[in-house]
Amino acid sequence: MTSGLFASYEDDFNESSRQVRAAATALQESLKQNCSAYEPPPATGPQSRAHHCQVMQQGLAHMRELVTSMLYESNDVEAGEARSEARRRVEDYKRVVTVLEGELFRLRQESQDADRMDLITGGNDALDDATLEARTRMLGNTQKLRQGTTTLERAERALHAASDLGTSTLSTLRAQTETMRNFNANIHGVDAEVMESRRIVNQMQRTATKRKLCLIGVILALIFCVVGLVFLR
């Protein structure tokens, strides 16, 4: 059975997942530029695409922390079926985070393209060619910056993957350390039993030696008595 702390992590994870999915849905709705009733969302504020992306990113970062906490907590679950079940659930949560991160990456790319198109057209497809060209030129540098941001995001995802690998390795080492401690405790127990057995054997040897000396003394006394009787006669 998992601990109450593990269950609280799960509840927090599910709530964060719900918020991230809600932000993804809102972001997806803002990308429907082909709709006849489409109006560009504000560039800033809670209704902006950037805000939805930020909510998703913060939620996913929190979910990753919760997965790490659940992984550590699963090591304290009693070994056996309960621990296997806890770790299986942790792996499921990891996959959820990975899928949502891929969704965030895709939506962010589409949001950047949509924002760029909104800036070019101003939400109006009837702009003349000169205006479109001027706006396109002004957005050139912005596009380069966004490409740099995309590269950084990919590096961040690689860093998260490396962090997951490190966390998994630490968990394995922790389990192995626990096994070694149990093994060491068993060795100490066996060593104590061996020492006790050795003490008992030594005690038995001392007792046997004492009895042997007593027997020799009795035999010598009998010999002296016999010799004395012979001389007295």
TrEMBL record:
Classification via InterPro entries: Sec20_C, v-SNARE_N_sf
Subcellular location: Membrane
Membrane topology per record: Single-pass type IV membrane protein
GO cellular component terms listed in the entry, alphabetical order: endoplasmic reticulum membrane; ER to Golgi transport vesicle membrane; Golgi apparatus; late endosome membrane; SNARE complex
A Gene Ontology molecular function term of the record: SNARE binding
Gene3D superfamilies named among the record's database cross-references: 1.20.5.110, t-snare proteins
Keywords: Coiled coil, Membrane, Protein transport, Transmembrane, Transmembrane helix, Transport
Residue stretches making up the Sec20 C-terminal domain: 147-232
Membrane-traversing stretches: 213-232
Main location, first listed in the record: membrane
Coiled-coil stretches: 83-110
GO BP, one annotated term: protein transport
Protein name listed in UniProt: Vesicle transport v-SNARE 11
Gene source species: Trypanosoma conorhini
